[in-house]
Amino acid sequence: MLLKMKFTQQRRVRLAQGLWLLSWLAVMCGAFIFCLGVYLKTELLRRAEVMDNTEIHMVPNILMMVGLASIGTNWVASRVCQDSLDSSRFPRWKILLLAWFAVAALLCCLLIAVVVLSYALQGHLEESLKVGLRNGIRFYKDTDVPGRCFQKETIDRLQMEFRCCGNNNFRDWFEVQWVSNRYLDFTSKDVKDRIRSNVDGRYLLDGVPFSCCNPASPRPCLQYHLTDNSAHYNYEYQSEELNLHSRGCRQALIDYYMGLMNSTGPGVLSVILIQMSVLLSLRYLQTAVEGAMALENPEGDSEGYLLEKDVKETFEDVKAKALIMLKFGQVDPTAAEASAEAADTEKAADTATEKAASPPPAS
Q: Which residue, among 36, 35, 33, has the nearest Cα to 67 in the 3D structure?
């Protein structure tokens, strides 16, 4: 037996009481994991318009699923602890406990997967934001187009909230027409010259939306003619750092979301340790109580263990049981043919008996 321990009646009672408290702690941890997943999901949905795909939603989805499952499994564990001291009520859990251990182990594996995915999906998050923000900046002017009419508000709020500008930096606004044709005076010589100077016929300018302005700047915000030093008094384009937010919104959002997901790591690891403690403690309690019941002395000493055999033999036993369960759900073609032949033989015998029992015809 692997990691065998001796249990007296008093020790079993203490183990059941401690495990009951630990199970309810794990229930609260499951609720915490679920709320964490809901919060992360909400934050991702708030910025869905500047994201190109939803692969990153895998992390909060797993957190919510595991949180709900953890609440249910650990509530069951608390009930098992209560019934473990009653020899008439504990046997009903014997069959269900096998499924419980499988679910609890799966939850631990999924929580570990969440921690790994939080770091592994950073590249997908960055690419998603890169494409999403690029499209958001390109559609900034389309306030009259259905499906895009809220892009301007989304980008402006994003740049003000995260103190950022553009995708990589404020120069990204120089490459797109972010002013709608609806607000351009096409009789103006300046507008005509700017449109003619661009091969795509776009109205480009070295300016940015008002949301890029940095409130920490000591001078009123300069939005237009940003590369022309002569257009503003006491202005130097290369050294005017405080006028606009210098950080791009992609980096700002990556830092924000990765900070959220990385902060979940220690919390999730703590939940894994608690869940593993519940799993191992309940296994000791189960085997100790079943050992006492097998001796027909519920108050006597018994042995508790994690595995009845070594790891290799236990794996082979589980594999054999799984194959047996799979065979029960399948139809054996050899057995089906044999039963069909037996049915044909029986039918032929019945026909011969009926013929023998019928009277001969009168001459």
A: 33
